Request: fold
Amino acid sequence: MSWSGLVEAALDVRLTTTAAAVVFTVLTVAGLAALAARRHRRWLLTGIPTAVALTLVLVVLAAVLVEQVWRPFPDRLPRDVYAWTAVAVLAVALLAGRWLVRRRDRARPLVAAGLVVAALAVVVAGAGRINAVFDAYPTVRSALGMTDYRTVPLDAALAPATATVARRPLSETWSPPADLPATGAVTTTPIPGAVSGFRARDARIYLPPAYFADPRPELPVLVLLAGQPGSTDDWLIGGRLPQIMDAFAAGHEGLAPVVVLADGTGGQFDNPLCADSRLGNAATYLALDVPAWVREHLQVDDDPAGWAIGGLSYGGTCALQLATARPEVYPTFLDFSGQAEPTLGDRDRTIREVFGGDTEAFARNNPADLLARNRYPGSAGAFVVGLDDSEYRSGIEQLTTAARAAGMDVHLTELPGAHSFAVWSAGLEKELPWLSRRLGLVAP
Reply:
């Protein structure tokens, strides 16, 4: 194998497999052993206990800051995150102790370099195990921020075809040209909050191979949202969106939905609860501004019957909120591990800080309340959750029952895994055939 081939193979090594977990664990044990291995009485009786105590104090303080003071997330971080953070901090504390206490260690270049390498190995291993909790960066390539999908400039995406094909299902009339690209492509664009005033980050848009044909089929649209914290890149990296869509298109003559990865929060740690409130008009942005921009600038299916909204975690909650509050805009939805209700952590705080104490305003944005009050005979959706997702599974199951009782055509898919991209990417792949039939892309 050539050098470039070896590099490519190394970049494609998966970081969230059982084998990777074993490697990270071995690195952790070996690194901590190297950092702690001194026979001097003072180090054993004072140095190591001090490093351990300092680690515990720092991690507990960080947990209190995150969970009680800052509270950037609606739910508590998994214990594994704090455990592996503590392991990484302990490695740095041991390195600092060796550096400060043992002058001989830092005076010997090989020993000093070995200690630094050991500490780095533990830190990297800890980061790897934390990443495995969420499966956010599945490969070395993705962890390094390197993409493996095709991109196109915005002007290429906006260039109109001379003619379009509009019919449901498209698969019955569509004939791909000989020069159809083998894969789709991703482009980046701002979508202004013209009506809402919402300040959104740039959107990413996946365009399937058929979009680059002339005549161009008027493809259905899936607006897909990230979680919180999150960004519009998350579905491209952890969610493997381009690979999943390209694989589907390869089996359907280049046809797949156009996927708009819109910003539903406005910032990495922002949480506007997908509502119109003092935190920003996120609901109006996603229900009015985004569809209007897409219809104006892209040649896609104009009928709401060809549109769907979906998302993971916070994004799943948001998708169901819009499907219940704006069914005329999004009659189809995908809820991947969404919360039982929009929340900042608890209902009292949510109503107080987002809706100014107005419980009725909260109810108008809460899917469970809307499903209890209204009927949705024209709506359909898919709920997806991990079998090991103890935090969200019961809520998803309750919402599935409520949606069915409200007249929605819904189904629940439970997959192996917890609250991670492993479930969400697998869920998207599994639900894509159903979604494509629902949106009129392929025949039932």
The two ends are 46 Å apart (CA to CA).
